[in-house]
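FYI - complex with zinc ion, inputs then prediction.
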Amino acid sequence: MSNPLLQEFNTPYGTAPFEQIKNEHYQPAFEQAIKKAKEEIDEITNNSEAPTFENTIKALDFSGHTLSRISSIFFNLNSAETNDEMQKIAQEVSPILTAFSNDVSLNEELFKRVKAIYEQRDSLDLTIEEQTLLEKKYKGFSRNGANLNNDKKEELRKIDTELSKLSLTFGENVLAETQNYELHISNEKDLSGLPEGAIEDAAQTAKDKNKEGWVFTLDFPSYIPFLTYADNRSLRKEMAIAAGKKGFQDNKNNNEKIVLRIVELRCKRAQLLGYKSHAHFVLEERMAESADKVTNFLENMLQKAKPKALEQYNQLKDFARKKDGIEDFQKWDGAYYSEKLKQELFDFDEEILKPYFQLENVINGSFEIAKRLYGLHFKEVNNIEKYHKDVKTYEVTDEKGNFIAVYYADFHPRPGKRNGAWKTGYKSQWILDGENSRPHISIVCNFTKPTASKPSLLTFNEVTTLFHEFGHALHGMLANTTYPSLSGTSVSWDFVELPSQVMENWCFEKEALELFAKHYKTGEIIPIELIQKIKKASNFLEGLQTLRQLSFGLLDMAWHGQSPDSFDSGNVTKSVKEFEKEAFKSTQLYPDVAENCMSTAFSHIFQGGYSAGYYSYKWAEVLDADAFEYFKETGIFNKETATKFKDFVLSQGGTQKPMELYKQFRGHEPKPDALLKRAGLL
Ligand SMILES: [Zn+2]
């Protein structure tokens, strides 16, 4: 039998032939595709002609096409529709894929050709997109040490190997510390205040562990409700302190030495490559571009947000004193009294919103908004193969009826789908030989399912999530670039959330909600008072939230924005806790807890890839608020503004520096004021 993954896809629009693919097809398909990709690379390096943009850079960007299609099908399904067998295949093919990509990035012959072109770049008369692509390809090698001599290359490999082991151990330690703790409750009185669902989950956890009563753990779905609702203050304290000392206890899971070593090695690596610090290395390829810019951004936000944050902190403290006579307000009181205060001020149950947000109406609402803004039409079609019967498939066209994209939407949870919501794709967009090859984009969510008696009614949070992912999807669907690696959402980290977050703003606007927020039984449009309540509740204690985010961003920059040699006094480098206290000085409101430490469990920056990147969360909010402000100034359905956003942001992918794109759309660099206003902080 022939392998459908290795044939031309003989399907409408060349979509993935999901219904013909069997698990046994993947492994041989990967092997064949890697072989083919290697041959394509060899063809480039063996070319006897002098290197040109065309025969090297372009050829490289269009190489490995079969491999990337197979990878996207396999890894997307491994997230959305997996099983034991798929996971086993993933374990087997992942190292092979890593080895292949290392082969390419360490290929000296290939680098020689890329470098030769890079060095003549000023005389080549390249378009902006071509210049960007050339720079990206060159940096892909140079940032990986291609310009170093053999000794230094060897040193770099050693650092990389040690770093990857350290992050792994860091993560394992955090996980072990999370799992080693449990709060076992046998007296029902101690459950006071907790919602029914949290109590049921805790009873189930106890049962799973062969215990009587209820067990709460440091996993978020267990921990967060406990800190938010449990009336028993001393148990809240116990939980909070247990959570805060992950990786900071005198046991084998201690992460202090690991943190210091990671910071040291990252800086060494950056300096080996000619950068001042790890942050300088990372930020070179981001919209923010420099460590100074990020630090200034965080400091500036802090200055503006702090007065309101302080006011809200005092409000919360007063509330706790008046309500329960709390004289020494602590961090384990924060979430609890926030929730109580919120109830008192808003008296607003999220459940009353759900009847206005039937899934089908919300989907149609998102389509109607995309039509008004970008002239897009979505038509549900049944001729495209699906990987699960619940997946919806659409053909997307523009005003003139031209085909724009295929859109897959997969809304409900089921076994084999991971949690959360995300946008992905099965094929990117590019232009080759004058033909614009359109993308296949998908969103995957885990929304409330319909029941026998009720359609799927979304929480407001699910509504904004749908708009968020739809915004990412539009970024993919409207892509209009020549080179696949620059297309759609292939942009820097601190820019990629602009299209998604900006879409969420329409969910708060009367003019937009009127299009789709209709009661599923009566058809009544959502009342304006409810819209106002949604807005107010979304800003509740936003100052405190902002301060918290800024504190993490500043801590991240403190660890990564300077060389460890320059860390103030001698003992600071030896004590993670002291260093952290110093970095937190301007942002901490709650009294410090001596046995707690944030850095030793800060997985975002020491395990995952967010080092020198935590600021991106706030940065992206500033961008989306500033961008939406423009829509508000001109009308939220203003065609001219929307066209600018499409032309300079959505269709451009990573073809230019993001700041340049943004300025062309907005007329100036993003300003934080729109966000501060929206969050009620100005
Ligand atoms: Zn997102």
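DSSP finds 27 helices and nine strands in the chain. The mean pLDDT is 95.
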